[in-house]
Amino acid sequence: MDERTGLRERKKRRTRHAIASAALRLFAERGYEETTIADIAAAADVAPRTFFGYFPSKEDVVFAEVDDRLAEVAERLATRVSGESPMQTIRRSVVAVLEAIVSEHGEYGAVQIALILERPGLQARALQRLTDTQEKIEGLLRDLCPGIDEIDAVAAAGVAVGGMQAVIVHCRRHGYDPLSMRTALDRAVTIVENGLVSVDALNRPWDAASP
Amino acid sequence: MDERTGLRERKKRRTRHAIASAALRLFAERGYEETTIADIAAAADVAPRTFFGYFPSKEDVVFAEVDDRLAEVAERLATRVSGESPMQTIRRSVVAVLEAIVSEHGEYGAVQIALILERPGLQARALQRLTDTQEKIEGLLRDLCPGIDEIDAVAAAGVAVGGMQAVIVHCRRHGYDPLSMRTALDRAVTIVENGLVSVDALNRPWDAASP
DNA sequence: GTGCATTTTTGCAATAGATGCAACTTTGCA
DNA sequence: TGCAAAGTTGCATCTATTGCAAAAATGCAC
What we know:
homodimer
């Protein structure tokens, strides 16, 4: 299974990285629309046709790194810690995913985020990754709690991802300040765990709000 | 503001509907990829170029109806009922949106769902609409609870939408049986309101699960 | 009704993403 | 070394999408 050996593998990795890297750099310099597949291919020193051997579309190249990282995180998620409750495992997983997404941007992290925010198509792709994550969390839950009600598993995963989205939205608006992100994350986790009933402001008749 | 009058308006509506309707029909008959803009335009009896005057892209035409319906729902959401708590308003809103999406499919509802499920690009667009809804709910919350903490508002909206997603996922897997959907919806709402701590299976150490 | 201003529709041309195919190269292995 | 598998490339093609300017339809004032 180990593919560390082999010139082929190494070369493929290198080419993949070269393409992704060239693409991000060009996107940063000229903008997304203004960069063509031909440009990227030229910068990575491959034929335009080769691009599609590595990425199914121009949009996907933006997520090359993210995808790699999510794959790593997915492995960690499956790690059971004895004595931990499933709830604690979820908390750990959610935090891990968020930190992977938010803090560990690579060389062109800022560029990626800016791109994703301004291109609806890219936003959509990003959301799709979030949904995939949701399904993974659901799977994790069902592993951890054999016999758990399906609806419970799906809903719990949905609610957890909803909390993650909240943090991401918060960061979009207020930047990626680690401290502020931490606060938002804690608050979101609390709401995910204890539900909307724990949000005081939501549980008074609205007429009572402005005395 | 009323645009009921005017031949122009009526004609535009009719054309828009003709294009959307023709598109859905063709998608159903031949498939999405196999239908070109030119085909749709021909079937709707307009010039290909005209298509783009009504829809920004081929993908968007699939959501023509959904968008109309979501716009209607958005209005209802803003309706305050005296004595209701914000929480109750949210519950009402979430249920309204879900029922709009799930039960009121138009003529080609089943086709739409099938299309969306098999085309990643369409899935992405659908998710984007969910995100838009999330932002609307957040706005609603901030209106209802002036001074609510921003993180609370964002997280609450996120969690609520997460619950909605859960129901949608459930329906995808088990069909759109109203009864089963109702059950899933109730369960999801409970989890949204009371949090993951209310899911019994999640709060035992996982080792204790298999005696 | 007639004529003008505005809005819509349309045709034409050009760009660029995406795909299938077949020839050509490189790499892995006997 | 030499064959088979895997990877790369060029070419042709299809189609979505956009800009532009001419043509047609509509609303309104006279």
